[in-house]
Amino acid sequence: MNIDIENLDGIIIAHLRAEALDASNAKEFKTKAAALIIPGTTLIFNLGSLQFVDSSGLGALLSCLRQLNASGGALKLCGLVKPVRALFELVRMHRVFEIFNTQEEAIRSYRKDVVTLVD
């Protein structure tokens, strides 16, 4: 599993390069993602390559969300393909995570948050 990292004006965009996030690689994902989590991190996971997520994968994503929330950071997801998005909706994870269709929408949402805080 590879995670390509991009820093766009302080927003960390992590492109997950794997077809699945499941029991076979969830631990590796958590280890790699933990390196991105520092206090105040604003992070986007672009999951466009994922075709499958199981309960271990969901647990790994939830772990990242909890760690970021505890450290004053934020996590948003984007690029979910239809079957993965359907799973998130089935298990109600779409109510836990902020999910955007595109990376650009996720980036704009962070910028809106900053403008709202400043206003």
Automatic annotation (TrEMBL):
Classification via CDD domains: STAS_anti-anti-sigma_factors (cd07043)
GO molecular function: anti-sigma factor antagonist activity
Entry-linked Pfam families: STAS
Domain STAS: 21-110
Family that this chain belongs to: Belongs to the anti-sigma-factor antagonist family.
Stored NCBIfam families: ant_ant_sig
Matches recorded under PANTHER family: ANTI-SIGMA FACTOR ANTAGONIST TM_1081-RELATED, ANTI-SIGMA FACTOR ANTAGONIST TM_1081-RELATED-RELATED
The protein's name in its UniProt record: Anti-sigma factor antagonist
